Amino acid sequence: MRHDDDGLIAADALDRVTWAMRRAEWAAQAWKDQRLRPLGLAAAQYTLLINVHSDPGLTGAELARRLNVTPQAVASQVTRLEERGHLERRPHPRHRHVQELHLTDAGREILRDADAVIVEIERQIAEKLGPEKTSQLRALLDEVADAVRAP
């Protein structure tokens, strides 16, 4: 078995922008998970709740597409959040086999608490970077998102 795969990938493969973005995302997700844990939430659940809050009536399939995860992953999280009383499923007005997702009062309360945690994380990042770099980073990330959406 060969272990000297020189030339298999570029020497700078782990120094690429996409890897830097991924490392930053992993670090941010770990930090969010750690800080949200006392609330009984994972970062993925916060993301799901904030999407339902911003667009009430989303279906599980719509959420899966929006979050770029499998419908099964969404269904699993929705079931957990529903069991905790944070989400409720309601019949879709036009499609009888489709259910819409809505926050409950408890869901709005946990989202408010979780968002305060995320705001604090963002504040700490902005404090570390400073206002100019924070603004630049946001603009650059928006440009990256636009660039990868372009045909």
Automatic annotation (TrEMBL):
Molecular-function GO term, any one: DNA-binding transcription factor activity
Signal peptide (from-to): none
Superkingdom field: Bacteria
InterPro entries linked: HTH_MarR-typ, MarR/SlyA-like, WH-like_DNA-bd_sf, WH_DNA-bd_sf
Name of protein: MarR family transcriptional regulator
GO biological process, one term: response to stress
UniProt source species: Streptomyces liliifuscus
Chain ranges of the HTH marR-type domain: 14-146
Gene3D superfamilies linked: Winged helix-like DNA-binding domain superfamily/Winged helix DNA-binding domain
